[in-house]
Amino acid sequence: MLARLIAQKLGDKLGQPLVIENRPGGNGVVATQAMLTSPQDGHTIMLATADTHTVLPAANPNLPYATSQFVPIAGVASVVFSLVARPKLPITNLAQLIELAKRSRPPLTYASYGVASASHAAGEMFKLATGVDMVHVPYQGAGPGLLAVTAEQVDTMMVPVAVANPQRARIRMLGVASSVRFPLVPDVPTLEEQGVPMVADAWIGLLAAPGTPPAIAEALYGAVAEILASPEFASTLTTNGFTTLGYGPERFSEFLRSENARWGEVVRAAHITTEG
């Protein structure tokens, strides 16, 4: 959705159409490899995510490329995660969940939308921040994972707010894993407000092929920045569970380094690998 929204508006700004080419496979590996041989002219760009270019590389050091090879264009947005619980779990708030998780035998379970995904890493981040033990249950997507929570098949999940919010009547949303409350669910406190020191926002941004000149990256960012500055676009992002980043090439590059370090620490501490 975000790729198509950006492409339409960016095409208007640049005076030429942008074609969305979906390259599924390997949690972004197939698409990223295709970028390696793309011309260095800025005509082929990639909508990358924390899943594909931060968490996955930390979990799989044998990827056929280094994500640092790619040229940052713009940090576009961040996905806001929420911690949800199945409706019949005998808790009503975050403190009770932590207490229950510490004494449960067998351990409670948490779903994610895939092994070595940001959802998986966010679940492990929660465990590290609280000292609880929960068993990871991966699903093929956020929708199936949340469905398992509503069906009482798994206890909890770190899931994007936009996916969880329409199911508020069928789940318990215990907190948002962001630094501030999110406008889409203003009644839901952050995890930090409730004593759990963690932020699990997952970035989304535009990258160019290795070797793309900085001037081209800056020119593309100039057009993207105009889009991000639009109140209409910002409202669309919020409605769909995103916060705006708006970072240019230099700041986005610095941000990626800090995010790689932050998420990489969690991946290593939790021993997350692509094998599960």
From TrEMBL:
It comes from the Bacteria. It holds the Pfam family TctC. Gene3D superfamilies: Bordetella uptake gene, domain 1 (3.40.190.150), Periplasmic binding protein-like II (3.40.190.10). PANTHER family: BLR1237 PROTEIN, TRICARBOXYLATE-BINDING PROTEIN. Belongs to the UPF0065 (bug) family. This is Tripartite tricarboxylate transporter substrate binding protein. The lineage of its organism: Bacteria, Pseudomonadati, Pseudomonadota, Alphaproteobacteria, Acetobacterales.
